[in-house]
Amino acid sequence: MQKNLERYQRQLIIKDIEEGGQQKLFKAKVLVCGVGGLGSPVLTYLAAAGIGNIGLCDFDVIAPSNLNRQFLYTPKELGKQKAHIAKAKLEKFNPDVKITAYSDKLNEENAGEIFKNYDIIVDAMDNFPSRYLINSVAYKNSLPLVCGGVCEFEGILTTIVPKENTICFQCIYPFKPSIKLTSKVFGILGAIAGTIGSIQALEVIKLVLGLRCLKNKLLIFNGLENIYRVKDVLKKNDCTICGN
Q: Is 244 a member of any domain?
């Protein structure tokens, strides 16, 4: 696939990227699970950076309550499949990038089959059951995983690298919530989702380029105070996913 390098000129002059790094981005294969408030900025910035193969996975349809933060969609597209609308828009945004859309709900049976086609997985979901599933399948298949989450004015993010024996999502949240927490029961400000989603895209790009990432660390963003904190997270030896 011929790439228009002029499009990436502002990246090519960065010493940690240059043409060699840009070629790595062109060859990268990244799957984004969830095409909502987090997925919208993640996908947009990955496509903008020239990630050559992007998969997006979401079974949901566009609803009015999505539009405060999911900027890939418009009111005219209500009721349509998110995955297909996002694919069409990203292909127009950057024709260099190959986009594959999956509109089936992730489960134990299909997740492994989908994940094996990618180098890096992004968790941009809004519920814990999906996060635990993605974490388990990614770790089992030794795939790096960038996890982000938002609630009201706060956001969190971590990067998991199984081949380096890092922590996993279950180390951070070992006790599964007793109720099904989703974005339908807690508030989300669009700008917070945009902030965390943008950093998730940055973490993916750094993983591809071999730069320092948030491994064994948890980034916590307080939007009210505009404060970022990064704390170390210890691996739980008794974790059923990544424990020794």
A: no
Q: Which domain holds residue 207?
A: 5-232
How far, in Å, are 41, 198, 234 from residue 229 at the CA level? 21, 17, 16
Q: In the chain, how many domains are there?
A: 1
Strands 98-102, 53-57: pairing is: parallel
The sheet that has 217-222: what strands, in order across it?
Answer: 98-102, 53-57, 29-33, 120-123, 145-151, 154-160, 217-222, 227-232
- Average per-residue pLDDT for the chain: 93
Mean pLDDT of all residues in 77-85 = 96
Note the pTM of the prediction, 2 decimals: 0.94
Asked, for residue 237, whether it belongs to a domain, the answer is: no
When pLDDT is cut at 50, 70 and 90, the band that residue 2 belongs to is very low
Residue with tokens 């900025």: 41
Please indicate, yes or no, if residue 174 is contained in any of the structural domains.
Answer: yes
**Domain for residue 32, yes or no?**
yes
Q: What is the CATH number of the domain that holds 21?
A: 3.40.50.720
User: How is 100-161 classified by DSSP, letter by letter?
Assistant: EEE-SPP-HHHHHHHHTT-SEEEE--SSHHHHHHHHHHHHHTT--EEEEEEEBTEEEEEEE-
Which residues pair with residue 151 across a beta bridge?
154
